[in-house]
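Researcher: Re-running this chain for the archive, since the previous output was lost when a drive failed. Same request as before.
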Amino acid sequence: MNNTARYLRTTIVYGFMCAFVFYILMAGMGHPYIWPPQLYLSVSLFVAVYCIMMARWTHTGIIKIVFPLLLLFASVLLTSSLFAYLVLSLGVFSWVRSGICYKNTTISALLAEGFLIGGTCLAIFILSPHNPMSWALGIWMFFLVQTLYFVFFMEGSEVPASDVKRGAFESARYEAEKLMSEL
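Model: Regenerated structure tokens:
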């Protein structure tokens, strides 16, 4: 299986699961409005789990992303502004992705992250979330925009196919394709 397709699928499904869990938790509390600490902690947990997933995809040690994640969770307590929290959490997310997991050159990392973070901010501002349903859609939109990284910006950063363990059927298909190409 192509790693990029797996990353895309996993990101989309994970984003949907995060949005669904967020909506169920917030709507289940019976509050029509969201308190900032709940929102900050929820988003931090979603981003932290996704960062751990990226570290596993790239065979990066979890210890390398501990400091950025500690900074992310510290921002829950230290920020009182929603804008400041979102900028800080997006910055930590970009740091983990382009600086630690998928090591890119500075220019390409800045371009990729600027495009994706800008797209994420634009999507959130257009959506203008104010209740649990719109925040859940905003969370899913965040992960949908982040899938563009794997489509446009991940060229040489992919784990080589030889490092990926294949199942029995995948190995058989690979061998059959190899034989057919030799004919």
